[in-house]
Fold this sequence. Notes:
The protein is α/β, with parallel strands linked by helices. It has helices at 49-58, 74-82, 93-100, 291-297, 319-336, 350-362, 376-385, 393-402, 407-422, 445-453, 473-492, and strands at residues 3-8, 23-28, 40-43, 64-67, 86-88, 110-113, 118-120, 127-131, 135-141, 147-152, 163-173, 177-185, 193-199, 208-211, 218-225, 227-239, 252-255, 261-267, 275-279, 301-305, 343-348, 366-370, 430-436, 459-465. It folds into 3 domains: 3-104; 110-239, Jelly Rolls, CATH 2.60.120; 252-492, Alpha/Beta hydrolase fold, catalytic domain (Rossmann fold, 3-Layer(aba) Sandwich), CATH 3.40.50.1820. It contains 11 helices and 24 strands. The two termini are 31 Å apart.
Amino acid sequence: MKITALQLGRTDFSQKFQICPEAEWNYEPELSMKDPEYDIAIIDRVLSDEESDILARIVRAHCLFVLSDVPVSEKMKFLIRSRCGKKLMRKDLGIFLRDWLRNYYGRPYGEKFDPHSMSVSPDFHGSVCWHGFTEAVLQGDFGEGFKQIVFWKGNIPVEKNQAIDFWLEYRKEGPVEIRMEIIQFVSGSVSSVQDTWMFSEDDMKKPVTIEGREAGPVFVCLQARGKGTLRITSLHDRWSRRGVGTFFPGSRRMVTSDREEIFAYMDPGDLKPPLCVYFSGYKTMEGFEGYRMMRRMGCPFILVSEARLEGGSFYLGSREYEEKLKNYILECMDDLGFTNDQVIFSGLSMGTFGALYYGTMIRPAYLIVGKPLVSLGNMAEAERLSRPGGFPTSLDIMWKQYGDLDQAAIDKMNQRFWDRFDHTDWSGRTMCAAYMIEDDYDMTAYQQLLTRVKGKGARVIGRGLHGRHNDDTSGIVGWFLRQYYRILRDEYDRKQN
Length: 497
């Protein structure tokens, strides 16, 4: 995991301090417009106004550090705020360059292991069942002493000095106890052990982290004892940043009391309206979506992502789950001093549900969506009747929320959205929606949106493209971006480069 690091100052730190071996160190006495993007920048002198403008373009938010004794100009103050810059004490510089710099690598990675990638020990004699891909349920007597009860098939590669975070989604009932064992093998071997870690339930209240002294694959299993019910949803593993953020430096990981996660990342951009909130679509690799797309717009933005089920659970959750995300967005609006008239919600496919559903709570000025999905009960019903095998996760989503796949669950799933939507004051709001005319996921989404806002003072701008849900993604994305740039230009007086 290479890190491209930039230093601006009078002396080259690499001549005095030990730099972590992952860093590609770039010492520059002066900065020019030709400089590429960097993963992190460390500043040890007063910048010219032109250099501040360049840094705002080539350094990500939360990745700018200024030595604490460097005088700061007005332009630098603006740069520090817009890049969420941090002060770095000179006495801490050596430790930072040696130990912390390695956490600012560019490309993140995260994955999950669903319940069907897990094997149950043949020594367990209780009952075992799988509820689709939502969870595996083990019930019975696990024994008096800890012993292996499940393990995950497929070892996870770990490089030398690489840290990996693990997070287990599980619930339990009764006095059953668990602990997680992680074993690292010598590279190229399936039997020679080089390291072992054991984590208790107290340890697992937070993500647990292992670090490979040498390269080699790791094997993960759970041990259990006592009697009761153990519900295992997913095991997540992610390249660790050792506490400076999940996926991106400075991102926010929010977790509920039942261990469900949601992630958000805020870039203040140029600190001028609007705040653009983008909900990631369905994706099996964990992390944020749309960073470069939103960054190019220049304005403040939030990326929202989640990693439940196979590729996402459409941002639906308990009241606690939904309140955490809503409050995070309100907190960002408050920090920027923006009202809801200065906010745009957006998303594609699964992200459209998040944008519209949370839009009922925030009432942004604009909603920009492509391939809207809103009646999730109908989407699950279509999987059973109209397009079997097309999107089986839709059944998992309904089972996760209501524990059934019958007509009552379908109706509840649909009304979960429409009850909120129909009771929202949409006056003065604008919805831009591109939809597939022959959509095979949610066939009536656009027509329903249009019908239900009619006469409520909202403006709807629509564009239909022929095809099924996934037939013309490029056409949908093109229209989606054109609406974004049009609104930024016409409504917020923003000129695009």
